[in-house]
Amino acid sequence: MLLNIVIFIIGLIVLSWSADRFVYGASALAKNIGISPMMIGLTIVAMGSSAPEIVVSAMASINGNMNTAVGNALGSNITNIALVLGITALVKPLLVSSTTLKRELPALLVISLIAIAFMFDGELKSYEGVILLGLFIFVLAMMAWLSLQVDKEDPLIAETADEIPKGVSNTAALIWIGLGLIMLPLSAHFLVNSAVEIARYMGLSDLVIGLTIIAFGTSLPELAASIAGVLKGEDDLALGNIIGSNIFNLLAVLGLPGLIAPGLLDPDVHNRDMYVMLGLTLLLFLFSFDLIGKRKISRTNGAILLACFVGYQFWLFG
Questions:
Q1: Is 167 left (phi over 0), alpha (psi -120 to 50) or beta?
Q2: How far apart are the C-alpha atoms of 239 and 234, rounded to whole Å?
Q3: 263 beta partners
Q4: How far apart are CA 42 and CA 107, in angstroms?
Q5: Which residues are listed as membrane-spanning (predicted)?
Q6: Cβ proximity of 44 and 30 under 8 Å
Q7: Within the chain, how many helices (H) and strands (E) appear?
Q8: In this structure, is the dihedral angle defined by the CA atoms of residues 215, 264, 257 and 1, taken in order, positive or negative?
Q9: Which of the chain's ends, N or C, has fewer CB atoms near its CB within 10 Å?
């Protein structure tokens, strides 16, 4: 048991580090070949923040742990909104002013409803996985297009530009990309296998291990990035990372088990977890969305979200 815990922690650290290095290299290479910072931020960086979840989902599905992969997708979205955003807002309230985010929030809500419709019958089918992954490619293309249409005064532009690495040679960028591509699946393999062993020892289902230990672990980079972002005044970027990560979790992370290992879902998915995810997404929408002017996610909002996370954990283990 102790050995599996050590392997899980090491796997999580390497997974997070390799995802960060992959994004670093890909962003630097994209900048060097002339891609705009906004396009890099909305596509490469946004997708990179979900890279741990995507790779873990693929590995779990390949190993036949479909419900672990589904739990990772739903649990990561729940954790991102309730825990990550909750703690971030308690540290410093977030001012929501980017028009880009006001486009992405309704998109997240629509995608959440599509995902729930697919899971409603208690089964994830292969064609549903194909549709979700197809939508993932479509959303990436739309984000790239939106990055070309964005208002020059949008605060997200400056915040994104500040995060793009500078002065990195193409050779160094390619080395980081290659290292990330090697270490991501390798670390995910050990992380998933150790998590399954821990779950069996503790008597937890595949779904719960995905909803809790794996979801929390793969969301730690978002927590660190969000807190660092708001402390630097990059509120829109911090919130944008969470929204983008949740969109990609529902399309790519949930789509992969549908494609690789379709089958019956744990009954708790459609009796409990997908509704918790939808409820938190609606809360995020209400706290963030304002058609006129700016909207602030306050410390009170953060406390509500954090209380929801704690309550959900009691529900899972009660």
A1: left
A2: 9
A3: 124
A4: 14
A5: 6-26, 38-62, 74-95, 130-148, 168-188, 208-231, 243-262, 274-293, 300-317
A6: yes
A7: 17, 4
A8: positive
A9: C
d(CA 51, CA 71): 16
Mean pLDDT within 291-314: 86
Query: What CATH number does the domain containing 142 carry?
Result: 1.20.1420.30
How confident is the model at residue 38, as a pLDDT?
Answer: 63
Q: How much is the pTM?
A: 0.88
Determine how β-strand 94-96 pairs with β-strand 295-297. antiparallel
Neighbours of 315 (CB within 10 A): 11
Residue 122 contacts residue 264 (beta carbons within 8 Å): yes
The strand pairing partners of 264, in sequence order, are: 123
CA distance 308 to 316: 12
Spatial distance between the Cα atoms of 282 and 203, rounded to a whole number of angstroms:
32
CA pair distance 178, 256, nearest whole angstrom? 22
Cα separations (Å) of 103 from 83, 106, 143, 152, 155? Answer: 23, 6, 10, 16, 15
Per-residue confidence (pLDDT) for residue 162, from 0 to 100? 64
Determine the 3-state secondary structure of 94 from DSSP: strand
pLDDT at 71: 94
**Number of independent structural domains in the chain:** 1
- The beta strand positions in the chain, using DSSP E, are 94-96, 123-124, 263-264, 295-297
Q: Which domain holds residue 63?
A: 1-317
| Per-residue pLDDT tens digits for 189-211 | 888 888 888 888 888 888 998 99
Per the prediction, the chain carries an average pLDDT of 85
How far CA 220 is from CA of 149, 174, 255, in Å, comes to: 32, 26, 22
CA–CA gap between residue 135 and residue 103 (Å, rounded)? 16
pLDDT one-digit tens code per residue, 277-298: 999 999 998 888 765 556 788 8
Report residue 10 CA to chain centroid gap: 20
CA distance 19 to 188: 11
Instruction: Determine the Cα–Cα distance for residues 207 and 198; give it in Å rounded to an integer.
Output: 13
pLDDT, residue 193, reads 85
